[in-house]
Specification:
CATH class of the largest domain: Alpha Beta
Largest sheet: 7 strands, mixed
Structural class: alpha/beta
Shape: globular
Strand content: 25-35%
Distance between the termini: 19 Å
Number of domains: 2
Order of helices and strands: EEEHEEEEHEEEHHEHEHEEHEHEHEHE
Radius of gyration: 19 Å
Helix content: 25-40%
CATH architecture of the largest domain: Alpha-Beta Complex
Number of helices: 10
CATH topology of the largest domain: Quinone Oxidoreductase, Chain A, domain 1
CATH superfamily of the largest domain: Medium-chain alcohol dehydrogenases, catalytic domain
């Protein structure tokens, strides 16, 4: 099969690779759509030791099951593979399973390919009237859904307002999830002017970093970027007694004002991916339209994936998400 293979910092090749070999609990899924994630970009830049070259990246995918009793089933893929039997898994917190794996990290190859092998329990059926393009958004949007769920639980109420740092698919997904759950005053901070225009077309209030009113504080702040600068903003803009949920993995250190968090009794929650139930709930919200039209993606052929990575790196992409399609990808 053909696949997009990360071969080293800022190097990625479209080439022939062996077909995946499914295990006894796996299905083989022919990929129709697969999104480029920020973590794929971190790996591409050589910043993620968890993703060593050579490796097939990509974990935001949807496609069609091949062979077996589910042959032809349209599915979106939960890429997080867990043991299912530990305390975390049995309590519904499978995303912190000690034995968790995710496609696009060894030993599991990713979905920038014509096919991927994945446990059948990780598949959610996609209705016939939902495009594979939208179905592939379940994974990134589940990250935001999970962060919003944890933030609302920590607050104990629906907040009056929320600040989202980052206008990519993670941040926009968090904003859409918050809106779907009744949060009214949502503001997104996004430095890229073209992306802000895209967000505004989705009826989101998007401002550049310097556009925040210094006198405005927020009940809930969601950092979808994870740089020292965004953690600094989160620390400064959350109200006393408020909540920060932190999704982004941009860099490991810096920015967090622990003194203010302590003196103002601010809750900081690190959020990793999503529980399996969050993924299913997000998929259902996409399918029934609660998250809106989701018409802000840009589609490109998988064969042109290297150019897509270079364009994202150079800041030439206005869309919050580029989705790649293998040649002949099924809709």
């Amino acid at each position: 099969m053909k696949a997009l293979v990360y071969t080293g910092p800022e190097a990625i090749e479209f080439r022939d690779v062996p077909d995946p070999v499914p295990g006894p609990q796996d299905e083989t899924v022919r990929i129709a759509s697969v999104g480029i994630c920020g973590s794929d970009m971190h790996a591409y830049l050589g910043h993620d030791e968890r993703r060593p070259a050579p490796l097939i990246l990509g974990h935001e995918a949807a496609g069609i099951v091949e062979d077996g009793p589910n042959d032809g089933l349209r599915v979106t893929i939960n890429p997080l593979v867990t043991c299912g039997t530990c305390k975390a898994c049995e309590s519904g917190r499978d995303n912190v399973c000690a034995d968790r794996q995710i496609i696009s990290m060894p030993p599991r190859e990713g979905a920038f390919a014509e096919r991927v092998a994945i446990p059948r329990n990780n598949l959610v059926e996609v209705p016939a009237d939902v495009s594979m393009e939208k179905a592939a958004l379940a994974e990134p949007m589940a990250c935001g859904w999970h962060a919003v769920r944890l933030g609302l639980a920590a607050l104990g109420e629906i907040p009056e307002n929320a600040l989202i740092l980052g206008g990519g698919a993670i941040g926009l997904g968090a904003a859409l999830a918050a809106r779907a759950r009744g949060v009214a005053g949502i503001r997104i901070v996004e430095p890229h002017a073209g992306r802000r225009a895209t967000l505004e077309r989705s009826e989101m209030d998007a401002v550049p970093p310097e556009g925040l009113n210094p006198d405005t504080f927020f009940d809930l702040v969601i950092d979808g970027v994870g740089y020292a600068s965004t953690r600094k903003t989160a620390s400064a803009r959350v109200r006393p007694g408020g909540v920060i949920t932190h999704i982004g993995l941009g860099e490991a250190e810096g920015g967090l004002d622990v003194r203010r968090l302590t003196l103002q009794e601010i809750t900081f929650i690190g959020t990793y991916t999503y529980a399996a139930q969050d993924f299913r709930d997000t998929a259902m919200a996409i399918f029934d339209g609660r998250l809106g039209p989701l018409d802000w993606t840009e589609m490109r052929p998988l064969a042109d994936g290297a150019d897509a990575f270079r364009d994202i790196r150079a800041g030439r992409v206005d869309a919050p998400k580029i989705i790649l399609c293998p040649e002949g990808g099924l809709k």
